[in-house]
Amino acid sequence: MATEDVSVRYVDLDDWPTADAVEAMFEGQLAAVAAVRPALRSIALAVEDAAQALGKGGRLIYAGAGTSGRVAVQDGAELPPTFDWPAERLVFAMAGGPGALMRSAEGAEDDAADAVAKADAAAIGPNDVVVGLAASGATPYTVAFVRRATALGAVTVGIANNPGTPLLGAARHPILLETGVEVVAGSTRMKAGTAQKAALNLFSTGVMIRLGRVYRGLMVHMRARNVKLHRRAEAMVAALAGCDENIARDALRQVDWDVKRATLVAQGLDVDMADALLDRAGGSLRRALAALDASGEDAPD
């Protein structure tokens, strides 16, 4: 498979001047991101399907081994602080367990039986979304986990860097990132890993957008828990509600620093009214504001 092949161009890489070697590796990173473009439609279809399932209360489950598993965990771990995604609706099925995040557990990737056991133990259902990554597309653990999740009715996404591989066949949404040979043969933490991270950025952020956790390019579902995020929240509410930051800060304090609710409170609604309006809008600030505008009613003093 291409990710394991030796490139004729780079066969003497170790004898090159350092500047030339670094430039060659940089070019590989650019090529990795370019390899995501042909997969954009597949990513978009996966986003739509995943958002529908997660909107019904499902969980987002990442599965992988080695570098691919670590890339998956990095993506998922950033969703709670960025979009306030609930920790109880985020699952990591890493081959070798959590310890494999810090220390290699090479044999774990071959344990397909463990993958099936973990999928069953997670009680995966039709509202869950499983994302499996494997540069080779043939890692037994990842293929088995995704195949079992598909059989259990979950929305499954398989991301691989080689065409015609078992992982792509096991997933409802196969996403091929054809990055080809690595500068260092088989070192898939380079081009393959970069392409995987770029694709996951698009997928997970796209899902959060479809779930109403982004409005006007802002992460309005963020929950501010430190000084930096407090300032960011104040600026967002001030901009969205058209008020000064003192009013924004007061509104945020009333709703435990929830940007969506504070935006409505800053416009004059009380907390209960803001909550009810957001509930009717399915949590979408865009729809809530549109409904408020369409009502033609002035907010109470």
TrEMBL record:
Pfam families: GKRP_SIS_N. CDD domains: SIS_Etherase. Keywords: Carbohydrate metabolism, Lyase. PROSITE patterns: SIS (PS51464). InterPro entries: Etherase_MurQ, MURQ/GCKR, SIS_dom, SIS_dom_sf. One of its GO terms (molecular function) is carbohydrate derivative binding. This is N-acetylmuramic acid 6-phosphate etherase.
